[in-house]
Predict the 3D structure of the following.
Amino acid sequence: MKTPENIIDKIKRYRSGDGAAFGGIYEESYRYLHTCVIHIVKDEDIAQDMLQETYIEIYKNLGQLKNPSDFLSWAATIANHKCFAYLKKNKELLVYEQTDEEGNEADYFGSIADDEDFIPENIFDNKEKIRLIRGIIDELSDVQRACVIGFYYNEQKQDEIAAELGIPVNTVKSHLNRAKAKIKDSVGTVEKKQGVKLYSIAPFMLLLFGYESKVYAAELTIPAMGAGLTEILSSGTTAGAKAIGSTAAKATGMALRTKIAIGAAAVVSGVVVITGINSSHNTEKETDTVNEKETDTVNEEETIDTEAVVAELLIEGLDYLHGTNGKEYNPDKALDSFKEAADMDSAEGAFLAGYVLDAVKHGEADGSEYKEAIAYYESCQDEIPYAKASISLLYKDGGGVERDKAKAEQLASDALKNIDIDALLSDKKSMYATEAQKIVASLYMYGYVDGEYNYEKALEYNEIAAQNNSAAAMCQIGYIYLNGLGVDVDYNKAYEYYMKAYDMGDRTAYHQIGWMYEKGYCLEQDYSRAMEEYTKAANLGYARSYNQIGCLYRDGLGVDVDYDKAIENFEKGMEGEDEYAYNNMAYMYEEGMGVEQDYSKAFELYERSAELDDASSVDALGWFYYFGLGVEQNDDKAAEYFIQAARLGSEAGKKHCEQMGVSWEE
């Protein structure tokens, strides 16, 4: 903030021994500093107290300000520091908390210029838009606003922010990304609900509120100086005239923890006051204001509480995961929060990040998410046994690792030694109890508890988790009833639970409802509606849905037969490592549907699907060996695959075993 010449002149007079000049400094700067303070504390009486303390501090330390032209920025830093200390003491503020992976900042924030002339004039004419934008800014968490201020207004590098906040660089990147993403999402939501266009003015939000603050300040009546300040001034000591430029440290060198804390406090009310921060972004400029000792003291007082940050991130993530406390179900946002917590060495954050990647997202996209999930699980498995249990389930299915049933059983056994299964049923206190209940349900479902499949127990634990808004548990219950696992097949029950997760916006539920429409399970068969639901799930990255869309196009169900679109969708499903997509693409090559017939290519794809335990693909491999399609004819190999397929539950495999006169029973 540029200091007006009239204030600079009064500072020089005061330093020359004219004590009365301080009154002029007070009058000329009061409106500006009042604006800084009132937008933070939001209470006039408290603001007056903070201003009195600010001016006392200014009076005592004015001699340390080397360049009078930096006065307003320096004074605003003091004012914001006083307010922040007050808010922290009264527990009214907790300071905690996207570039892309390469660190590029190409979103609309990147176009912000530190110049109010950059703001379109018509923005200021629409008070409703100003109100809506303020609400959007208010949605950012304190640490997101902090990183934005540090990065965009201080022009601090991300590694500098990370070093001074004591968090990894990737966490800073994530905070910046999430801040931009939140603004973008909120702008879209407001535009849709309110019918107003805000996106075009998103780059100007922060400057807008700085402008609004100045307008507010211009209308303020300046009160007389408080008694405390008057008493100090009446002593006749012009403290500011002493030690001019003596022991000083650069304002731009003040620890970012302090400056960002101050900056974050300045946006608590949703009104960004661009103060207390050197907007010139020149860290080499000599703006000496406070000595190193004072800066270090501020650091100690206002160091970010890492434990509080982690707790807030975990709570936020769980709210997004369960759709609670005003948050809409959003596993991607939940994952962002958990990853940030994990970056701050939180075992709970690592476990929950792995859980979302594994049990909620199911390794969608290119399948790499399973590997990422394992990395998170492994980082916390010694502290959280459910992480080790989750790894066992991934080894069972070959998710992100080579399938290894023996290792899966061993890991599950090791994990269960440290899990009180009975106590878990009634656990309502543990932060991740719901996720733990879902994991134990899966252990029962796949026979890892007491060495036998127990669908009744799986259902019991899933129902507890479902009561706590676990969409994953709801979907597993739906699956149990849809397939009659330990219960009678009940399509209505399956539909009921799938719809609960569906209403939360769960991609698995979208897919399963599409399946029920395609098959006509308790719903009137409707291929168009099935396509609609599959498309919704596929757009959210659910690989299996691409396979089903491909089948509809291949078979002409509700749409014209279109092999090109079928192949396109099968290939997308294969990118997500969906075994059915591999199977169906293999069939296209086997039959020459939309591609040149190629038994070798078909065999290769069936092999990949078989590796993922698709029983029909295992049977197909036996068929290829039996007839020598794309491979050398081999009855022994054929029998081996038919037996394996039969043991995986393939009726065709059992039939082929009978035809070859071999037994598939162990």
About this structure: The radius of gyration is 32 Å. The longest strand covers residues 288-290. Strands lie at 249-250, 288-290.
